[in-house]
Automatic annotation (TrEMBL):
Main location: nucleus
GO annotations of cellular component type: cytosol; nuclear envelope
Organism annotation: Stegodyphus mimosarum
Superkingdom of this protein's organism: Eukaryota
Entry keyword annotation includes Transport: yes
Keyword Transport: yes
GO molecular function, one term: small GTPase binding
SMART domains given in the database record: IBN_N
One Pfam family recorded for the sequence: IBN_N
Biological processes, Gene Ontology terms: protein import into nucleus
Protein name per UniProt: Importin-11
Localization of this protein: Nucleus
Domain Importin N-terminal, first and last residues per copy: 26-98
Keywords: Nucleus, Transport
Length: 553
């Protein structure tokens, strides 16, 4: 198809039109050329021609991407010829000056797909060219080269065969120092210029973000043990130093929505890097346990930073702490002397030294008095969309949503430090249940602590005389009909549902069924009724359920 440039261009023009008949004909034409020699080179020429309509170029790039997926492998029928591939690879490496981001992104993805097949044997010049590009003084060329390197590194890091992993480790050793230095320089320059309102802030932050993405993949996939690599240790140490300054940046970006969003993504990515190392190289992470806990607890639970964090960052911090708490490699054997790895003992020692009673007490109080409280948004959701509010947030919502995240975090903390936290939660429960205030803030505080008691039902089994609590306190709570108390009625019937199969004697069941029927009354708040219906389901599903007790007298 060497001389068919205009024919392909006409087909792409028709395929991007709004005329359905022209569109169908053009699609058939393009489909018929997929196995023609020179077709993809012609598409690339069109895609790189900045004088053409963007829609035509965009369609051309998508056709190339689909063709690479189908016909780049040597083993497939009608695969692209080797000489055409050579020209194709060479021309792709000149595409780092594409001004339209969506098209540049597709070029990067195409290069990453080809790199997965051809690097390093048939494309040895790929990374030297990318490194040259990321060190360019031309802002656009540097950003596009970084975008491409990110996608290529991401693609290569996902390969799992031993030979591929060895190649990726060699690649990491050859480029890590350069990318690290670029990240340091660009992020420092951004932090320096953010207060002056420099016109290059977007480019500086974007390049910092892309280099951080590249380093994230390299540090966990490119080193067998990143704790033994000076550059990797330096990189992880610098993360802790960047969190505070980048948080401060948000104050200067409140009126620049796009930059603020990118800054928040950058902060979240910093924590994701730490989580990746913890999950994939837990023993290499041991030296970072203490700064991780100090940093996370300070930002999430000290009054100094109250109201200064945003939800996604809090979720990342809490999941990072939880990751340290639950990491199996950090748990010694029941008999300490049976623990084989000294790093396990070191990690356990660091955890125990950090989580003293004062620290645990402050975390617990902050969780129950701050993070567990229903927000204005929650109350509005309750009133405007009760069915959605009442639906159970199951699955993996704790990974990205604050409320389930704080609840799962509390449970993890409670399991680990049950002996220290049980008296604290029991005392807080006694204090709120004896508080007869009908102030809505006090109602929300009580609701939060009842939530904790329901979540930790298994761990509190020996500490709570549930039958007595049910008859002397909880039944009374369910009968209060004052304004705002629907919050407590819903939480209490949910709490009973949590305990019914754990520690409620059979003699109490008839009384429970009576209470549930009262709460199912049409005049009751819908969310309360839904919670009551769910509590009834739990009680009926329990293996101690007795049909005779459920039947009317």
């Amino acid at each position: 198809m060497d001389n068919h440039y205009q024919v392909v261009l006409d087909a792409l023009t028709k395929a991007s039109s709004q005329n359905a008949e022209l569109l169908k004909v053009a699609e058939r034409q393009l489909k018929s050329w997929e196995t023609e020699r020179g077709f993809y080179s012609t598409l690339l020429t069109i895609a790189c021609d900045k004088s053409l309509d963007v829609n035509i170029r965009w369609l051309s790039v998508l056709c190339i991407k689909n063709g690479v997926d189908r016909y780049w492998r040597k083993t497939v029928q009608n695969s692209i010829a080797s000489d055409e591939k050579n020209i194709f690879r060479q021309r792709l490496l000149t595409s780092f000056n594409e001004p339209i981001y969506q098209i540049a992104l597709q070029f990067s993805v195409i290069i990453s797909k080809i790199a997965r097949f051809d690097f390093p044997k048939e494309w040895p010049e790929l990374f030297p060219t990318l490194l040259f590009g990321v060190q360019s003084v031309e802002e656009l060329q540097q950003l596009r080269a970084l975008l491409t390197m990110h996608h290529v590194v991401k693609s290569l890091a996902s390969k799992r065969l031993t030979g591929d992993r060895r190649i990726f480790q060699q690649l990491t050793h050859s480029i890590f120092a350069n990318i690290l230095q670029l990240w340091i320089n660009r992020s420092k320059l951004f932090l320096h210029q953010v207060q002056t309102g420099s016109c290059k802030l977007k480019e500086l932050l974007e390049s910092s973000f892309l280099t951080l993405k590249i380093l994230r993949k390299l540090v966990v996939n490119g080193f067998k043990d990143c704790s033994k690599e000076n550059d990797a240790v330096n990189f992880l140490s610098l993360i802790f130093q960047q969190i505070g300054p980048f948080l401060e940046c948000r104050a200067f970006l409140q009126d620049r929505e796009q930059l603020l969003e990118m800054c928040e993504k950058y902060l979240v990515l910093l924590i994701k890097v730490l989580r990746d190392v913890l999950e994939l190289q837990p023993f290499a992470f041991v030296q970072f346990i203490r700064p991780t806990l100090e940093c996370s607890v300070t930002f999430c639970f000290s009054k100094e930073f109250e109201g200064r964090l945003f939800e996604r960052l809090i979720v990342q911090f809490l999941n990072l702490i939880k990751g340290v708490l639950l990491c199996q490699e950090y748990k010694p054997a029941k008999l300490i002397e049976d623990t084989k790895n000294p790093l396990t003992l070191e990690a356990h020692k660091i955890k125990m030294e950090f989580f003293t009673y004062p620290v645990l007490s402050e975390i617990c109080h902050q969780l129950l008095s701050r993070y567990f409280l229903l927000s204005e948004y929650d109350i509005a959701s309750w009133e405007n969309n009760p069915e959605e509010f009442a639906s159970d947030e199951g699955g993996e919502s704790w990974k990205f949503s604050l409320r389930p995240c704080t609840e799962v975090f509390f449970l993890s903390l409670f399991h680990e430090f049950r002996n220290l936290l049980t008296p604290l939660v029991v005392e807080m429960t006694k204090n709120v249940q004896n508080n007869g205030s009908r102030d809505f803030i006090d109602i929300l505080k009580k609701e939060a602590i009842y939530n904790a008691v329901g979540l930790a039902a298994f761990d509190l089994y020996d500490e709570v005389d549930f039958d007595n609590w049910f008859t002397s306190v909880l039944l009374h709570e369910l009968k209060v009909k004052e304004t705002g108390y629907y919050v407590i009625r819903r939480r209490v019937i949910w709490l009973i549902g949590q305990w019914v199969s754990i520690k409620m004697s059979p003699e109490m069941r008839p009384l429970l069924y009576e209470v549930i029927l009262e709460l199912l009354n049409n005049e009751e708040n819908l969310v309360v009724r839904l919670a009551a219906a769910n509590a009834l389901k739990v009680a009926v599903d329990d293996f101690e359920f007795s049909t005779e007790q459920f039947l009317p007298v």
